[in-house]
Amino acid sequence: MNETGRRIARLIIGVAVAASAAVAFASEGGVGVSADEALQRLMDGNKHYVEGQMGACRESDTAKREGLAKGQKPYAIILSCSDSRVPPEIIFDKSMGELFVVRVAGNIPDPVVLGSIEYAAEHIGSPLIMVLGHERCGAVTATVDSKGKAEGNIGALVKTIAPAVQKVKKAMKGKPKAEFVEAACDANVKLVAANITKKSPVVAKLVKEGKIKIVTAKYDLDEGKVTLFEDKK
Q: In which region does residue 136 sit, left (phi positive, over 0), alpha (psi from -120 to 50) or beta (all else)?
């Protein structure tokens, strides 16, 4: 083989290697992953976490980091609370690049949060949104305790969560405070999910077209288990 032939051969090999890398990278992201498949991955990962059989979240090594530097294709968007005990990548046993996580106290959907979700849903193509609440949420507890009023910027959180507290207040009258807080936590997660499509025409359109699915869930601080509420189509 002459020099020209060798150069062509090297070029062909280089293209093949690059194509292989691209396919491998795509397989780790959201390309070809349905909302139901994404949800199953999350729940399987949580099962590993609960059973102490974690593996994927330990794979965030140098090679993984360098591969992801080329781009991201997360298959799930997680809107969760900022609580330090509820890190989505750990409780779902996932590594870098799998989840697009938006965290804010009380997992509330303000305009900045909605913009972040819209970016992942529309521009990245993530097919699943999970609104993840948790037991004994401090933001919800603060709203219950404040009776609708709070100083400083915490007042913005209280104002946003207050409708969930009001929704269950009558039914929880006379019940222990702990039960009231948990009912409010559940109501808040469901209201947040409903408000995502109400306040985001972008997400509402994607839901209507069947390109994205929204689910609600709650994390048990004691057991580490994530339990799904009803699906929001």
A: left
